[in-house]
Write a structure and sequence with these properties.
Blueprint lengths: L6 E12 L2 E12 L3 E5 L6 H9 L6 E6 L2 E2 L5 H7 E4 L11 H6 L14 H13 L15 H14 L4 E5 L7 H16 L3 E5 L3 H7 L2 E6 L2 E6 L1 H4 L2 H8 L1 E7 L6 E8 L12 H4 L4
Parallel strand pairs: 3-8, 3-9, 6-7, 7-8
Antiparallel strand pairs: 1-2, 1-4, 4-5, 9-10, 11-12
Length: 283
């Protein structure tokens, strides 16, 4: 990690339990300014819980979340929203609002008390919708949109907040292939321009292609953390997901790719028998 770059968002010793079940166990995460951090792991690993904790939605966890050096617990929800936006995994059903009205709600943290949205807020809202290819839904109510279309509208609302930190929970889960690439290309572009993004990503190929660093969770604990090359190894993938695989450099995209061999407990060839080019990343 480059210590010359300031920390945008960090978590130290995050732990969270529901009854007797521990969902987060002493989790540590650092996201530098202008960095795209991916949270990966199997179902139930704690990815969504970690994002909710980072956003301030979980106030009863142990440990601390620091937003640009300030403890999140000392900040008002409006101050947090002025700096950080969250796109949930499942877009909430919001009855009666048009897409434009929903995206315009993203301007709330930047408005004074009793202040109404003005011309600049409308411009920012339309620009956010243009970036996510949702302009054509401007006058349509959310109940007329598909799940993937609603998801993109909620990404638009997050962009309309003009946050410095963007949290995304499985942002491509309901999207077709074209819009998966469009959304992640947009996030990558914004990161290159200085935004900090932290996203739970189910697709390991997408995580390897777009993220600067990865945090691999398993049973609420950090199993591995580092660059995609450091985290996505056959050993760590088998430990987290229970599958054997080969990891290699995609000759077209240039990023890491994973080829599944089979369940770790099945009668499948061990990773060491895979041709050398697929055992790990080529030097």
């Amino acid at each position: 990690m480059n210590s010359d770059r300031p920390q945008a968002l960090s978590a130290e010793g995050l732990s969270y339990s529901v009854g007797a079940q521990t969902l987060l166990d002493n989790v540590r995460l650092h996201a530098e300014r202008g960095q795209f951090v991916g949270i990966i792991g199997p179902n139930g690993a704690g990815k969504s819980t970690l994002l909710r904790a980072l956003s301030g939605m979980l106030r009863q966890q142990d440990g601390a979340v620091l937003l640009e050096g300030t403890d999140l617990r000392s900040m008002s929800s409006k101050d947090v929203a002025a700096s950080m936006a969250l796109v949930p995994q499942i877009a909430p059903y919001t009855h009666g609002f048009t897409s434009f009205e929903l995206v315009l709600m993203g301007r709330y943290p930047h408005l004074g008390r009793f202040q109404i949205e003005g011309r600049e807020d409308n411009r920012i809202t339309r620009d956010a919708m243009r970036q996510t290819d949702t302009e054509r839904f401007t006058d349509r109510t959310l109940d007329t949109l598909s799940g993937g279309e609603r998801q993109r509208v909620f990404v638009s609302r997050a962009l309309a907040q003009q946050p410095r930190i963007l949290l995304l929970d499985e942002p491509t889960s309901n999207l077709d292939v074209f819009h998966q690439l469009k959304v992640l290309d947009l996030v990558r572009q914004l990161v290159n321009e200085g935004l900090t993004a932290v996203a739970a990503i189910h697709d390991l190929h997408m995580a390897a292609r777009y993220c600067d660093r990865l945090v691999l969770l398993s049973s609420g604990r950090v199993l591995a953390e580092g660059t995609p090359e450091e985290v996505l190894t056959p050993k760590t993938i088998e430990a987290a997901f229970g599958v054997r695989c080969a990891v290699y450099r995609d000759p077209v995209a240039g990023s890491l790719a994973i080829s599944l061999i089979g369940p770790a407990d099945a009668d499948t060839p061990p990773a060491e028998k895979v041709p050398a080019i697929t055992q790990g990343v080529e030097p």
